[in-house]
UniProtKB/TrEMBL annotation:
<protein>
    <submittedName>
        <fullName>Four helix bundle protein</fullName>
    </submittedName>
</protein>
<dbReference type="InterPro" id="IPR012657">
    <property type="entry name" value="23S_rRNA-intervening_sequence"/>
</dbReference>
<dbReference type="Pfam" id="PF05635">
    <property type="entry name" value="23S_rRNA_IVP"/>
</dbReference>
<dbReference type="InterPro" id="IPR036583">
    <property type="entry name" value="23S_rRNA_IVS_sf"/>
</dbReference>
Length: 129
């Protein structure tokens, strides 16, 4: 294979990976780490964003790809919900939640634009050989 896989060139994928990394670091804190069910949910949602971008990029049609971008955005909203609960329980501070919310808003807008762009190209032929 020559060069990086196509999804690795996407800004939204890098933003999602950076966000997931920060969430995984937060999940190592005592209160979250002790609540395994909560840790599993927040980490799963965080990792699902970039994973769905990557998986969708491997699909054969723009509409299939857009569907996975929608899933990524849904996972992003789920992550925001979990982070908000962590804030409510004082497992993360308000300022930290605000930083996460800014990243989530930026990534959500990027995913929305990507999905819209893909849907505008819905009549393109399959990318399969």
């Amino acid at each position: 294979m020559s060069g990086p896989l196509p999804y690795r060139k996407l800004e939204v994928w890098h933003l999602a990976q950076d966000l997931a990394e920060q969430v995984l670091l937060v999940a190592r804190r005592r209160h979250i780490k002790e609540e395994e069910w909560f840790r599993d949910q927040i980490c799963g949602a965080a990792m699902s964003v970039s994973a769905n971008i990557a998986e969708g990029n491997g699909r054969s049609t723009p509409l299939d790809y857009a569907s996975f971008v929608d899933r990524a955005r849904s996972s992003l909203f789920e992550l925001d919900c979990w982070l908000d609960m962590a804030r409510r329980l004082s497992w993360i501070q308000q300022a930290e939640y605000d930083r996460f919310a800014e990243r989530i808003d930026r990534l959500s807008a990027g995913l929305f634009q990507l999905a819209r762009s893909l849907r505008s190209r819905r009549n393109l032929p399959s990318r399969d050989p």
